[in-house]
Write a structure and sequence with these properties.
heterodimer, A: FAD/NAD(P)-binding domain, Gyrase A, domain 2, 23 helices, 50 strands, B: mainly beta, 4-stranded antiparallel sheet, about 15% helix
């Protein structure tokens, strides 16, 4: 219930929201959990395994119990912590893991069956029959246990990614963080101060202690005002540093907007922050005590009760009790009394505990039982005098504080046990260039945090060669942290450790008893610390219980490893910018629009989009269009955009020598204005890529690569030049996108070109494999007489800005002479008819020998792959070598990917003779043809082999033949 | 992870393509024995500690660099251009 006049925003506007369909009114600035408590709602969730009724435990991102789902369909967000969900008008939150309702949850029978559902129960119980696990047991368990669910729809909202750089990253804006940021900023360093909360200030927003005579929140506001005025400071609220990575890199998740934001407003932004130095001021988290039935709604951490009261003006109960082992928790009683809330009792396990105010104190006492199924009604306290039943609707507990060491463990650092504070503190230098200040290293007084922030920041700026500023420490409380160990209370009933994963003391003891004594084994056996809160609330207590059960000390027991992320991060945020076109941008050719206008289906080739074929209105299948286009090229003239091929401009006095080194054949002997086919090997002797390279001048070449390998070849050439042949005077640049290049192929290709070239060409001036500069419609271009179809053919290139216009011109001219455009399908048929290879053939496992090109590997010079290509195993006749295939019966269809077997042999891998790499229907020959690899293939022409495709259930008797089906003498291309 | 490109300065790991150990710089002579070529092409140590490996600043200046780093501590100890590494 709300306490009048209390909280940071006592006059905040009312905000209406619903929880499980019931309408409530909260206050501007509330979190969902604060607003629910203000409305007297204590029951907020059901536990993971036993479906036990649970209420909110904390007031921060470490919340294990109060998890809700917000939104529907694609906007459904599960497992939202009610403690970090900002309230907004119209917020509709739903509870999770309960059916039919939160109050009457059918699966709560699990709780009655709990003796059978102890740690590791599913390893033991669901062993037989084996097949039942996947089909029966696992689905039932998954249905019964769990948290919120995803909708299964793709996310609709916008997520962002961003990068930031700074000298000093200060993580956490409590007293230590604020002083660290001020000190670093005054030295002139670039500072980023991040805090996960909507408001900076940390515990100062939740406490009544004063600083320099001001209230905590007022002091914070003044300091933040000063920081905001400095140009070298960036303040980032609602930003949680989720991980510490190598070389000062940090991941951070910024909550940008609520679920009701417009779809184009980012919900979250994932930051990658690079910092020269970092100061961790993450504070500390209070931990519970394990006592019987310590999980009822209404049992909360003492610090959370204080935060709800002081920050949000909410009393978590009307008769509050406190159970603690330290002085700090007594503040909860004092603050509540100060606000007029009844404190029924303070139970302190320490014999010598002193009352710090006007409340009933039970010293040397423990809570041994609690009552109230859906919400706490009473507790039983035991002390030297006996047992006492106390009516209470809120029990504030404190087992002490754990420094938030998590980030210091992200690079394998292990925290160190401190007997002074009975917890782990960060080990120095766990993260390079990170220092820890304040409560995060066990400095629990406000003054201690302020001083620590200043001194750590001074040392940090000094290490950056900046001048350490003079800065005064504000006056603040410096109370000693007085604590005595209390991990668990004796008594019957389950004493919960990990509220989120339903692990209790007995589970940990059982793990120890069954010899899962290593802390990492115990964790996996019991699932302790494995839920979304990553054991933030429970780990230290669980370790203490394990230490006790195994007769070791806590330092010897050690801790499990904290790993990133510190809080759950949505995949959408981590993958921001990498979906759709962010993942795979589209590369469009200059002919793209014209092709789309002609209804050409565009197919992906890497990131490129190429026209598959250009359908005529009368054509109903792709094959009809493809056959027509092939015939057009064979009989008239065809035009095809081939600009996707990689083009690399190579220049320098040693360009020829360089090419001789990267290609297995020779290019230094190539005459100027001539083109040569080249084969590139990998250093292991296998084929890397092929293509033509043109010599445009004495020291100037243009290399083409296959479309697929363009990037890889550029990288490879960089490698060879820089690392292997830095002695060569050669430079190169990718010009793939600078030139639009079109194939003009067919008997009428020269006729077509002569209709657009500024100067006429003939067979003497442009013989086969000639190249050079030409003028085309007044534009300087390049002409290459090369053929990938076997026809008399050219490729004509112009600067890309003229590409669309040249494509239009070529199309018009071709169509005027019964020619036309052809797409990727026809291009593929034309090249298979000629036995030209692509990456379907040179797929990484084949050698020059395998494709019949072994004589191209020059033995007169060294080149990449030369030596290794001569290994005996790579020249063995029994290797699978390239062949052509045709069906014995003309109407039979070949399929790529099929394997080849001796006729009559079982089609099993032991009998495998080879495989099929490319097939097509040849309109020129009137039947299917294929290319493939067959053991000792070139010596088996005329033999029959069985093509077997188990996937498509295709069996075809084929004849082995030479891979060149069309114009084997090559006269057409030269003519 | 950040790598110090000798040309561009310290850059995010995502800008680089990883190749492998710097062994690849020491290409044997064409007529070196089979063992030397086998080692060059196939065999690599997997050191715990300091190592030198090759990275290509693919999304940057295009330089191949040799990075010295520690596989245990993740420290990056320096980088030189591959072009100058052999000398």
């Amino acid at each position: 219930m709300r306490v009048a006049g209390k909280g940071l925003n006592p006059n905040g506007a009312p905000v209406s929201f619903t929880f499980d369909g019931t309408s409530y009114t909260g206050r501007e600035g509330d979190t969902l959990s604060a607003a629910l408590l203000a409305n007297g709602v204590r029951l907020m969730g059901r536990s993971f395994k036993y479906h036990r009724p649970r209420g909110v435990l904390t007031a921060g991102s470490e919340e294990p119990n109060a998890l809700v789902t917000v939104g529907q369909g694609a906007r459904q967000d599960p497992n939202i912590r009610a403690t970090t969900q900002t309230l907004y008008d119209g917020l509709a939150a739903r509870s999770q893991n309960a059916w039919p309702s939160l109050k009457y949850d059918a699966m709560a029978v699990n709780d009655l069956a709990s003796p059978f559902l102890t740690a590791g129960f599913y390893y033991k119980t669901f062993m037989w029959p084996k097949a039942f696990w996947e089909k029966l047991y696992e689905p039932i368990i998954r249905h019964a246990a769990g948290l919120g669910a995803l909708s299964g729809d793709a996310v609709e909202e916008t997520y962002e990614k961003a990068f930031a750089f700074c000298d000093v990253l200060v993580i956490g804006a409590g007293p230590a963080g604020i002083m660290a940021a001020l000190t670093a900023a005054q030295s002139g360093a670039d500072v980023i101060l991040v805090d996960e909360d909507t408001q900076m200030g940390g515990r100062l927003l939740a406490e009544t202690a004063e600083i320099d005579g001001q209230s905590g929140p007022d002091w914070v506001a003044a300091q933040l005002g000063a920081l905001a005025k400095m140009d070298n400071v960036r303040l980032m609220t609602r930003t949680t540093v989720t991980g510490a990575y190598d070389q000062g890199t940090f991941g951070a998740l910024e909550q940008v907007s609520e679920q009701n934001a417009p779809l184009n407003t980012p919900r979250e932004c994932f930051w990658r922050i690079t910092a020269k130095r970092s100061i961790l001021c993450a504070g500390a988290l209070e931990r519970p005590i394990a006592f019987p039935n310590n999980d009822r709604p209404g049992i909360m951490l003492a610090s959370a009760v204080r935060a709800y009261l002081n920050r949000w003006g909410v009393a978590a109960g009307s008769a509050v009790t406190v159970f603690a082992n330290n002085d700090d928790a007594h503040r909860t009683a004092l603050d509540l009394i100060g606000a007029g809330v009844t404190v029924a009792a303070v139970i302190d396990s320490r014999e010598d505990a002193q009352s710090l105010g006007d409340y009933p104190l039970f010293s040397g006492a423990q809570v041994i039982a609690t009552k109230g199924r859906l919400g706490l009604k009473s507790i039983t306290v035991q002390d030297a005098r006996g047992t006492h039943e106390i009516e209470t609707d809120c029990l504030a507990i404190s087992g002490g504080w754990n420094p938030s060491v998590h980030l210091t463990c992200h690079m394998n650092g292990r925290p160190t046990w401190s007997d002074d504070i009975l917890s782990f503190v960060p080990t120095d230098n766990s993260i390079p260039d990170m220092t820890v200040a304040g409560a995060a290293r066990g400095n629990f007084s406000t003054l201690g945090c302020l001083e620590d922030g200043i001194s750590v920041a001074k040392a940090t700026v000094t290490s950056l060669d900046l001048k350490s500023p003079q800065i005064a420490t504000p006056a603040a409380e410096d109370d000693p942290y007085s604590i005595q160990a209390l991990w668990q209370v004796d008594g019957t009933g389950r004493k919960w450790l990990d509220f989120q994963n339903d692990v209790h003391v007995k589970d940990v003891k059982l793990a120890a008893q069954e010899n899962f004594r290593s802390v990492e084994h115990m964790k996996r056996y019991t699932t302790q610390g494995m839920a979304t809160d990553q054991g933030k609330n429970s780990n230290v207590v669980a370790l203490a219980v394990l230490a006790d059960a195994t007769g070791r000390g806590i330092p010897e027991t050690g801790t499990t490893t904290f790993r990133p992320p510190y809080v759950p991060v949505s995949i959408a945020a981590m993958g921001a910018g990498s979906q759709g076109h962010g993942f795979a941008p589209e590369r469009h050719l200059t002919s793209h629009n014209a092709s789309v206008d002609r209804n050409a289906p565009m197919v992906e080739v890497g990131l490129w989009y190429r026209a598959s074929y250009f359908p005529k209105p009368s054509e109903t299948t792709w094959l009809e269009a493809c056959n027509r286009e092939v015939n057009v090229v064979r009989n008239h003239v065809g035009v095809c955009d081939v600009s996707t091929l990689g083009k690399i401009d190579i220049q320098g006095a040693d360009a020829a020598e360089f090419l001789d080194f990267v290609y297995c054949n020779t290019f230094s002997s190539l005459k100027e204005n001539r083109v040569r086919y080249g084969l590139m090997l990998r250093e292991d002797g296998h084929v890397m890529d092929d293509g033509t390279t043109a010599r445009l001048g004495l020291n100037h070449y243009v290399m083409t690569t296959t479309t697929a390998a363009a990037g890889q070849i550029m990288k490879h050439l960089d490698w060879v030049r820089q690392a292997l042949r830095p002695d060569l005077d050669v430079r190169f640049a990718s010009v793939t996108e600078q030139w639009a290049q079109f194939a003009v192929a067919g008997p009428k290709s020269r006729e077509l070109l002569n209709s657009i070239l500024d100067e006429q060409i003939d067979n003497e001036s442009w013989p086969f494999m000639a190249c050079g500069d030409v003028g085309v419609a007044g534009v300087q271009g390049r002409l290459f007489r090369i053929s990938f179809s076997g026809e008399h053919a050219y490729e004509i290139a112009v600067p890309a800005r003229y590409g669309a216009s040249l494509f239009g011109l070529l199309t018009t001219q071709a169509e005027a002479m019964e020619g036309g455009l052809y797409g990727l399908e026809a291009l593929n048929v034309l090249r298979i008819e000629k036995g030209f290879i692509t990456h379907a053939e040179i797929h990484g496992r084949v050698t020059a020998f395998d494709i019949g090109f072994d004589r191209m590997v020059s033995q007169k010079k060294d080149c990449i792959g030369n030596t290794m290509s001569r290994r005996g195993g790579l020249l063995d006749a029994e290797r699978e070598q390239m062949i052509g295939l045709k069906p014995v019966e003309n109407e039979h269809k070949l399929t790529a990917g099929a394997h080849l077997f001796v006729e009559g042999a079982d089609a099993v891998s032991e009998n495998d003779q080879g495989y099929v790499t490319s097939v097509c229907h040849s309109p020129t020959l009137g039947h299917d043809i294929g290319m493939g690899f067959l053991k000792d293939g070139p010596n088996r022409y005329g033999e029959r082999v069985m093509l077997v495709d188990h996937v498509r259930n295709n069996h075809v008797l084929c004849e082995v033949c030479h891979p060149v089906f069309f114009d084997p003498e090559g006269g057409l291309a030269r003519g | 992870m950040r790598l110090p490109c000798p040309i561009c300065g310290e850059r995010d790991r995502r800008e680089f393509y990883y190749q492998g150990h710097a062994t690849l710089l020491d290409r044997p002579a064409a007529d070196a024995d089979a063992g030397a070529w086998d080692d060059y092409v196939h065999n690599r140590d997997n050191p715990a500690g300091e190592t030198r490996d090759l990275w290509h600043h693919e999304a940057g200046c295009g330089a191949w660099i040799v990075v010295t780093r520690n596989t245990v501590t993740h420290e990056v100890l320096g980088a030189v251009l591959a072009e100058k590494a052999k000398s």
